[in-house]
Amino acid sequence: MKHQKIGVIVQARMGSTRLPGKILLELDKNEKILDVLIKRLKLSKLLNEIIIATTPDARNSAIIETVKQHNVSFFIGSEDDVLERYFLAAKEFELNIIIRVTSDCPFVDPYIMDDMIEFYINNSYDYVKNFDEKTQYTRGFEIEIFNFKILERIYSQAKSRPEREHVTYYLRTHYNLFKTFNFNAEYLNKIEGLRLTIDKKEDLLICREIYKKMKKKGKPSNFSLFDIYELINEKPELMNINKHVQHKKIS
């Protein structure tokens, strides 16, 4: 089989409405959310490219500086047409297989990601994801995979505002047009109610506590979702920090 270039594209900007500038807030001393996310993505054995896709807004220059420190790639594209930004980033870096994660999920699991990439390569699905209406993985660990041809197709067919603002909205609302697989988490004993995506200050606080405790366990960035479950089982009171935060709809 011809070599396929595999890349993750992370859309990132400073203009968050619920927690402004959140991706450059610290999880620990001198370690920002974006720092931790990039370090964890680098643990993947199958990614050829890590791309942070941002916008021309002057506030985002701080994101670019952080990206440069990690020697990974960045792309600057449309503020509002996020699908276009994503498509043009994938095109510029000549990606064949595209992984989508979001910048407010610093603990996204590179081991789950590699399992999903292998599954995608070895099967004939258009779109593989690890969540549905009732997420099978803990919030904050969502991963989506599709190829460039599929991205090109949705880029040309998506017309409405939601379809342009959210990269995979068209894919997820036109299931009949695509061969889709929901990657299962049956081997994990999921902890109900655990939420590790950062939308509010309380989310930031629980992620800080988990990150510091993982460091003390000797796992500064290479911990898995299973390791987090072990920690929460040891210290279930951590979940009280953000238990009242309402989930934002996955976009």
From TrEMBL:
Which cellular component, as a GO term, is one annotated location? cytosol
Q: Give the source species.
A: marine sediment metagenome
**PANTHER family listed in its UniProt record:** 3-DEOXY-MANNO-OCTULOSONATE CYTIDYLYLTRANSFERASE (PTHR42866), SPORE COAT POLYSACCHARIDE BIOSYNTHESIS PROTEIN SPSF (PTHR42866:SF1)
Quote the Pfam families the UniProt record gives.
Answer: CTP_transf_3
Q: What is this protein called?
A: Acylneuraminate cytidylyltransferase
**Per its UniProt record, what InterPro entries does this chain match?**
Cytidylyl_trans (IPR003329), Nucleotide-diphossugar_trans (IPR029044)
